[in-house]
Amino acid sequence: MTAQQKATLQKLGPFIALLVVSGALAIMSPDFLTVGNLMNVMRQVSINALIAFGMTLVILLGGIDLSVGSILALSSVCIALMIQSGLDPVLATLLGIGAGAGMGFANGWIISKGKVAPFIATLASMTILRGLSLVFSGGSPITGLDSDFFQMLGGGYVAGLVPVPVVWMLLMFAGFWFLLKQTVFGRHVYATGGNEEASRLSGVKVDRVKIWVYTLSGAMSAMAGVVLTSRLNSAQPTAGTGYELDAIAAVVLGGTSLTGGRGWIFGTLMGALLIGVLNNGLNLLGVSSFYQQVIKGAVILLAVLLDRAGKK
Amino acid sequence: MKVSMRGICKAFGPVRVLENVDFSLHGGEIHALMGENGAGKSTLMKILSGVYQPDSGSVEVDGQAVAIRSTRDAEAAGIAIIHQELNLIPQLSVMENLFLGREPSRFGVIQRAAMRQQARAQLDALGASQIDVDAEAGSLSIGQQQMVEIAKALAMDARVLIMDEPTAALSAREIDTLFALMRGLKARGVAIVYVSHRMEEIFHICDKISVLRDGCFVGERVIADTGFDEVVKLMVGREIGDRFPGRDVLPGAVRLAVRGLSDGRHIDGISFEARAGEVLGIAGLMGAGRSEILNTLFGINRRTAGEVWLDGAPLDVRSPAAAIAAGLAFVTEDRKSQGLVLGMSVRENATLVHLDSYARLGVVNQAAEQAAVAQQISQLRIRTRDAELDVKSLSGGNQQKVVFAKWLAKPPKVLLLDEPTRGVDVGGKAEIYHIINQLAAAGVAIVMVSSELPEVMAMSNRILVLHEGRQTALFDAANLSQEDIMAAATGTAGHDTRTTQD
């Protein structure tokens, strides 16, 4: 096997892992490999995948965004309040996603211009934004969002088969793939993550790249918030707690390096699907939710160890 | 005391790095190990110091075969290596570094007084009495850190000391101190292996020289019986022609004019002009402010006083992006940390600066990009199997050519060069000089900082000399001696600005 073939195999690792796990589950449970169940898995995965796409860019920069769950909660609280007050649901949704982008922008600005470590900056904003969503909602869920449009965003189906959130996920996947692979911006993300100093000296406006990346991460979190709020038909101020860890797990499972500069969006989609398939399969098999956590953690560890071994 | 390595072979996967290499070393000699990048010098020394195991071959110390399976075995055999990248822990004190892993202790409690006393004695024995044993290692100069490493090696009773490019980051004064120390060790019977690209130093300090080429041992010479040309021929396997290719370009109009440039910290009142087709050299000791002039011109450091004109128009840049937009290009000193994005491909590095030229509405035209890179690879003679290879896998000289490619995708008006041939082997250097000459012929004004005096003198039309942030001379490079430059660089020529042209 040549070095190049080995590198390709390595890159496809997450995909192969997904096939292996799916194959095993298909054998063990007859309910797994049905169209209905697979669509169900995809819909469950979509929220994590949307957040993880944005997180992939953040991690490619060598950063981290802990505030995604709080951004999700605060944007959905904002959207729910706007709809409740009679604002047009389409406009409210767009404004909500814009609000998420704005929160991400603030993260990016503090990190690049204020030179605060991403972990610290987003730890702080995670806490602040969570607090604000409790303040704005009065600490209780906001319900009664009577809008067919809004309920369709998370609960609808295209052609009576494909859930709308899955369509969002696939569209965003295509968009991020194009952004990273085909655009100047994408190249600058890889370069800045690979060597910030060399990139700056090559004329890359690294501060601008960082701000954009965190802004995108915020917008994606808000979009995930739209899907979640729509499906629950209510906004929960405590929604999205711990989602940052699921997103990071998907990115890392997908083979993106936490030190930045190396990774791809396809891997993240595979990572998110792998986590989703495991969740679903273990449920179908009736494994206790306590053991599910143990198994999920072990799978993440195993995947990363295999990745390590493959690189040697 | 004698060390012999016989028939050493080593392969990494399918790549044979060393093939049947013999190398012998005697106590009390300084033995240069030379070869182009990739010739196998580092691998051979890593085998001797226990980092790698040979696939076959033997190592004998004083006629006894020894198995060196780890760095610990090497230490036990009295072999120590001083790596090019120093290995001190910057947050720990000098003495904590000296005794790392073998701290004098009683019941697990460190005996600080004993440690301090021994550390002091060891440094004093090397003539390094100015180093404070309680100082943080990271606060020392590079030269002092190297002293600490040498002291650490000798404290383990090293009888063989391997030094990999020890002078690469040292000032002229620190090099003198190092050489005096090396002569002292030699007199004590220590054998020193000296790995370096700097010919002048090798002929100055070494007794013998062994040359590797493409993983094979090609010869050993006594320094007194050989010369520069023979050594180069051994290394590259052919005559390289002129070491410094000539340039026949008459300087044209002034492109870059600098008046009274200061950054408020490192440089003060710098004035010079660089003309189209001219190479203006900047010489001086380490820390004299050479790189800071380039950093200030390129918008990395803030300019606090002075004026800069480019092609007759005032230039005020506050970021590298603005400098690039104005037509400046900057080949930085440290290729790994400032020049290249290691981990990205040759193609991606080569188009990093001017990627916009191959893009419309922010979308890269991959075919146009690949075509442009292919052309640059052949034009600059970058030796790589594939433009998609990680730039990390290239030799130093070819990496540096990728850095040039990045800047030359669009011809700059002014090219700033900071140590353009550092870590580049002899053959690669000549090719880089060719590129510089071609750019000069195309009308680019070039400002070049270099620590290698022969390089500055041969490549420049004029030479600006700095001493502690101020310019002490602006020489015409013709008929200039190294002594003239050193006198100005050390400030012994007085502080008057001497100009022998204009």
UniProtKB/TrEMBL annotation, chain A:
The keyword Membrane applies. It is a multi-pass membrane protein. It comes from the Bacteria. CDD domains: TM_PBP1_transp_AraH_like. Keywords: Cell membrane, Membrane, Transmembrane, Transmembrane helix. It holds the Pfam family BPD_transp_2. The chain crosses the membrane at residues 12-30, 50-83, 90-110, 116-136, 157-180, 211-229, 250-278. InterPro entries: ABC_transp_permease. Coiled coil: none annotated. It is found in: Cell membrane. PANTHER family: ABC TRANSPORTER PERMEASE PROTEIN YPHD-RELATED-RELATED (PTHR32196), RIBOSE IMPORT PERMEASE PROTEIN RBSC (PTHR32196:SF72). This is Ribose ABC transporter permease. It comes from Vogesella aquatica.
Automatic annotation (TrEMBL), chain B:
Keywords: ATP-binding, Cell membrane, Membrane, Nucleotide-binding, Repeat, Sugar transport, Translocase, Transport. InterPro entries: AAA+_ATPase (IPR003593), ABC_carbohydrate_import_ATPase (IPR050107), ABC_transporter-like_ATP-bd (IPR003439), ABC_transporter-like_CS (IPR017871), P-loop_NTPase (IPR027417). PROSITE patterns: ABC_TRANSPORTER_1, ABC_TRANSPORTER_2. CDD domains: ABC_Carb_Monos_I, ABC_Carb_Monos_II. One of its GO terms (molecular function) is ATP binding. Signal peptide: none annotated. This is Sugar ABC transporter ATP-binding protein. The keyword Cell membrane applies. Residues 3-239, 244-493 form the ABC transporter domain. The keyword Glycoprotein does not apply.
